[in-house]
Amino acid sequence: MSALKRLVAFLTFLVIALPIGAYGYVYHKLGFVHDSSINTDLLNNTDYKSEKNITNVLLLGTDGRNKEEVSRSDAMMILTIDNKNKSLKLTSLARDTYVDIPGHGKQKLTHAYVYGQANLLIETIEHNFQLDIQHYVAVDFFSFMDIVDALGGVTVNVRSGEIRELNKFIPETYAWHKNPSKGSMQYIKAPGEQTLNGYQALSFSRIRKNDSAMERDRRQREVIQSLITGAKDLPVTKYPGVVNSILPYVKTNMTPNEIIGLGTEVLGIGNLDLKSLEFPTNTDTGRKIGNAGYVIPFDDYEVNVLHDFIFEDIQPVK
């Protein structure tokens, strides 16, 4: 199940798309999302690769559907705000990446959140990928559909081979959606570019069996880009509804001033088109390893590719 939209939705609206004119209202509301349990010393340290004018924000979504306290980080992405090269980047971290989780040995990356939530997940990512993370944003399952609806839907290109799998999930996501204005259940009937509502977009993002993990991440990034486009043009009158939909489901280490400051940096870049990378870069190496099950190992050269993408704005050749 994809949580990527929930985390994106938050980052998109609250960090990327809020005009300074709404500062007072937003500042007050953002005070409720600060997570004091996160180890800020870990985030403030620069033991791993970092550069001035480049900020890495870990976006993560959990797969809990009943607000359970412990769940897995189903979607993990690094949003890079690159003021050196004036670009925005999004790196998808495969949940099955085979990593060394401190204190727990070699396992899937997604398990780190179960053992130690955001603190351990950040430590695991920094240690294995030799990359400094400055901030994190966590969003749970329930926020995504409300956010999409509040933004007027997301525009994506639905391929003919995706329709059957997308529609398979719609009855379930429709039942989960508690918005009294959701209307009658609607299936997707034709391929092509179209605007999906909240439960349709969630179904689109959950497609995973009819193609590859890379295609799944491609769909998630397409949803993120559409959310960014919709959020930056959102009328001020819509702020209260969207903010109130998001806040109950969000945690971050950032203070209100840090969130608004980061949003200002993003707007200063000007171009909100996302460059994207899938990590590990060679997902074809996936295989079963011992009790870990199906995992995706990675090589040292792939870490160098990740660093080149984030810090030097070098897109790997496919």
TrEMBL record:
InterPro entries: LytR/CpsA/Psr_CW_biosynth (IPR050922), LytR_CpsA_psr (IPR004474). It comes from the Bacteria. Pfam families: LytR_cpsA_psr. Residues 72-231 form the Cell envelope-related transcriptional attenuator domain. PANTHER family: POLYISOPRENYL-TEICHOIC ACID--PEPTIDOGLYCAN TEICHOIC ACID TRANSFERASE TAGU. Belongs to the LytR/CpsA/Psr (LCP) family. This is Cell envelope-related function transcriptional attenuator common domain-containing protein.
